[in-house]
Design brief:
The structure is a single chain. With 119 residues, the chain is mainly alpha-helical. The chain has one domain (2-118). It is built from 3 helices and 3 strands. It has helices at 20-24, 34-74, 99-118, and strands at residues 2-3, 28-30, 83-84. The protein has a 3-stranded antiparallel β-sheet with strand order 1-2-3, with no helix packed on it. Helix 2 crosses helix 3 (99-118). The two termini are 29 Å apart.
């Protein structure tokens, strides 16, 4: 999920600690935020749209998580990064393997499994 600076027009969306302007006005894509977002999406799909809405949302969530699985499989760390630059480009100033990023997505898988079993 993207976190935008209030002055997006002043920078290219790349966090670079050596460039002070970009360090203050950065646009990063934080991975951990995706977990709570997807969990809420699943929760409200079922609550607002019933079983059919939940099923459609599960298909979409699995599609999103499939891209993360590809990243895990291709990463030398077998993990997900803390954050990325604009468009998902690697951020050299971010941690290449962060447990929080993985943990938030594991929560999504847990909730998805529980919602399906509760139906």
């Amino acid at each position: 999920m993207r976190v935008k600076s209030w002055r997006v027009d002043l920078h290219p969306g790349i966090y670079d600690s050596l460039n002070s302007r970009h360090s203050v006005l950065f646009s990063q894509e934080w991975l951990w935020c995706l977990g709570p977002f997807l969990r809420a999406r699943l929760y409200f799909a079922k609550k607002l749209h019933g079983k059919e809405g939940l099923e459609q949302t599960i298909v979409r969530v699995k599609s999103i998580l499939a891209r993360h699985k590809m990243e895990i499989n291709s990463s030398p760390w077998r993990s997900l990064p803390e954050l990325t630059n604009a468009g998902g480009a690697p951020c050299n100033d971010g941690c290449p393997a962060q447990a929080w990023s993985i943990g938030c997505l594991i929560d999504v898988l847990y909730d998805m499994d529980k919602l399906v079993k509760d139906d």
